[in-house]
Amino acid sequence: MRFRLKTRELLVFIFVALIIYLFIILGFAALYYTTDSIGLTPYSKPYTELIDFEKSIYFSIVSFHTIGFGDIHPTTDLGRQLVMVQSTISLFFTAIFSGFLVYFAIKRPRDIFTTTRVYIRYRKERFCLSIRLGNKGREIIDLNSKFEAWTIENNTRIRAFRCEEELPDLEKILYYDIDLDDQESRALKTAIKRSLIGGDTLHMKFSFIGNDMKTGEQVAHAKYFDSNDIRFGKMFLNVYSWDENGRRKDFRWKNFERIEEMDETTRDQFFAG
């Protein structure tokens, strides 16, 4: 049976919590039993009955959940101290478990991703630097993006380019493009050519912050690239089709990273420009 990432995380958390719970219950039951620090109360019949390990587990569970039936009670100072410690642990465990359970139930899964490469594409007779964004979850609105590029010289970070801009809503697919032939982006184009020809490593970072359309939860994403991640291409392959009602269908996420190759003539034109 296959589960979504969010479901798997929730099941793993519950499994780990149950293991910890059993460890606490059995651990204190063993302490109660081996120290002979609990016994039946006089009104329990027959009150002369011996406390076995099964009854120690029962008392450990009752003490952990602070139920206190009174049929078994601590008979020594050590037993009373163990009950106080276990009751204190139960308060913290319950609070932490409840808090994290709610967190895992309502948090947004990691369903935002970008291409693992940054692409130099040739579109409408202009070169652009492109990153493809994908979203398998709820729509994200109010996106603010930032792109930075820098080199390291003499152990000092030298900024080559930086820009910030608002992006359209991210429903399923979104393209982040920087026009490398624009005057404001010439420094980035020069830095890219220098890194590809001269071997200087160019570091890049793309990030954005937006809001989940349904919950209002803030969503942040960041991806780092360097010169080894630069590829040339033209059009990205489609990851979906359109039906007659104008809705997306037949998603093919395996095409997310696929792109048409750029011919050598166009690539030479990039370095010559």
CATH superfamily of the largest domain, please? G protein-activated inward rectifier potassium channel 1
Mean pLDDT: 89
Structural class of the secondary elements?
A: alpha+beta
Oligomer: single chain
CATH architecture assignment of the largest domain: Sandwich
CATH class of the largest domain: Mainly Beta
Number of helices: 5
Query: What is the first-to-last residue Cα distance?
Result: 54 Å
Percent of residues in helices comes to: 25-40%
Alpha-carbon Rg, integer: 31 Å
Give unreliable regions as ranges.
Answer: none
Shape type: elongated
Query: What pattern of helices and strands is seen along the backbone?
Result: HEHEHEEEEEEHEEEEEH
| Biggest pleated sheet | 5 strands, mixed
Kindly summarize this structure in a few lines.
By secondary structure, the protein is an alpha+beta fold. It has five helices and 13 strands. Helices cover 35% and strands 31% of the residues.
